[in-house]
Amino acid sequence: MCKALLLLSLTFWVGTVMAWDSNTFKKPAAEALKQTLSSLQYDVTQHEGTEKPFDNDYWNSKEPGLYVDVVSGEPLFSSLDKYDSGTGWPSFTKPLGADMVTTKTDKGLFYSRTEVRSRFADSHLGHVFDDGPKAAGGKRFCMNSAALRFIPVAKLTENGYGELVSLFQHK
Fold this sequence. Notes:
Layout: H1 3-14, H2 30-36, H3 39-47, E1 65-69, E2 75-78, E3 82-83, E4 91-92, E5 101-106, E6 113-118, E7 124-129, E8 140-143, E9 148-152
């Protein structure tokens, strides 16, 4: 997807253009990722691993902010769409924009499910299921905390996501 379309889709959804630039992101080589990510983060994002439920950083977090890909920093989810699914993993009703994640069929278990990956880093994030809140579209994006980095609203600007602060301002 070209940068203009990415920015256009985010502009439509959040009402502004963001600082993250897909044209400047180049996914680091595996050896570099092993140096910057924890072993769990590397296993989850690069080898479709799964962290333990109820034993991860964000499953019970209620702080307002943005969840970005731990590999690339691409914005993925907002705390505004986060809810307690009772599964022990952070769950969201939707990503920031439809084009911010990709999906593919995962036949790794005894049944098929839909894997969710980040668009630019191609990080494994988790899975999406059709058992989410019906009033919010019925989806449950069940993510691994290890694939995400949380940026509190108060630190969005200093981390380069200042254009997204308006998402959290009550109108």
